[in-house]
Amino acid sequence: MNKRKFYLALIIFSLVGQIAWVVENMYFNVFIYKMFNASAGDISLMVAASAAAATLTTIFIGALSDRLGRRRIFMCLGYVLWGVSIMAFALVRLDVISALFGSAASAASAAVSAVIVLDCVMTFFGSSANDAAYNAWLTDMTDTTNRGRAEGINSMMPLVAILAVFGGFMGFDLDKAESWTAIYLVIGAVVLAIGILGFFIVDEPKVKYPDTLGYFATIFYGFRPGVMRRHAALYFTLAAFVVFNISIQIFMPYLIIFYEKTLGISNYVLIFAPAIVLAALFTALYGKYIDRHGFFVSVAHPLILLMLGYVILWFFTSPYLIMLYPAALKADEIWFLIPIFIGSLLMLSGFLSGMAVFGAKIRNETPEAMAGRFQGLRIIAQVLIPGVVGPAIGAWVLRDAETIVNSDGTESFLPSNAIFIAALIAAAVLAVGLIIAKAVSKKHEKAV
């Protein structure tokens, strides 16, 4: 393996893929909120539909890549088609859809539905290329000696991607439809170009893939009870990963709206940018720590950081604090912005380093040469269940959220800081579960 070429492909495909996912996961919500006055229920439905599409795609395409013994073609061609599908969002404009519908309300509702459907189409290509093929390729190209380091780089990319997107979006007025058109065209073109570049820099893993099973047997391989018993550590890790991601998905779909609309921080990028840089650096360095220590030791620190971040973000945006000091919630006061920055930094550091720990553990426990067929299980744990349960919990918590009247007479909801308490509860449940599992594991080792 050419290490220089491998890390180049790892960085480029991971970064660009995450940029596309950031636009979907963090800005599709903003897009339909700003352009079509979407509700919390609309956002929850979109996230859940996309999660289901990602899971089914990864299960079927991951198994197919195992069956054919190919990763490269699915990665590269998948990125090309992914880019095309992103550019298609430039067509979803209220002025275009209004020509088909009489009232503005009907046009807005149709636009939200169109975004949800097109999101599922885009997710099919993105999950084929990234969730199924790229992640299987990364597993095949690494081993237990360097997976923590590779996963550290891979897991920091979502935050680097957020920074890149935030920086790029600063030049756009997101209240204008033409800005979104330009964004989708540019992001789509970049993803497409990386797919073409991949044909020149991505090597096919030198792995002999099992060919004794048929395609459908390969699809359902990871769901067999016997396989679950043989690889119990993998399925335990996946179960813990579910709870971790539910905690993240409770607040993440509403985070930017919370900062910008609820807190009134128009330049929220100035808080996020340095927090993202520091969290990304921490995650990259933490990868080496993961390689040297066991799972239970490595996962403890991210969970502590994550929960501390939740507490700070809740407390310093709390109505109880405002009661003590009425001028507390002022976005232009530096004493208010500093704790928001610290809370964001801790939350982001815990989130990304936690992803690195779980990612490395899942890859280490995945049977050799079978990475494709297990990617669907990873997506179920990372995307499907959390993508359905997390936003639904967030929407339930925000069911009585304050609303504001827009200039056109429509209403939009304002997310409250209660989403961080709900996320904290989920993280605390995970922490207790891991403590119990560690105690049971030690007791079993002594008995043996």
Layout of helices and strands, plus pairs?
Elements: H1 3-36, H2 40-68, H3 72-87, H4 94-98, H5 104-140, H6 147-169, H7 177-201, H8 215-219, H9 225-230, H10 232-251, H11 255-262, H12 269-292, H13 295-315, H14 319-324, H15 334-365, H16 371-397, E1 403-405, E2 411-413, H17 418-447
Antiparallel strand pairs: 1-2
Helix pairs in contact: 1-5, 1-6, 1-7, 2-5, 2-16, 3-5, 3-7, 5-16, 6-12, 6-15, 10-15, 10-16, 10-17, 12-15, 13-15, 13-17
Tell me the CATH architecture. Answer: Up-down Bundle
Number of helices: 17
Helix-strand category: mainly alpha
List how many beta strands DSSP finds. 2
- Give the radius of gyration: 22 Å
Mean pLDDT: 88
Multimer state: single chain
Which strands sit side by side, in order, in the main sheet? 1-2
Low-confidence stretches: none
Helical fraction: over 70%
**Strand fraction:** under 5%
Biggest sheet details: 2 strands, antiparallel
Cα-to-Cα separation, first versus last residue: 39 Å
CATH class category: Mainly Alpha
For the record, the count of structural domains works out to 1
The fourth-level CATH homologous superfamily is: MFS general substrate transporter like domains
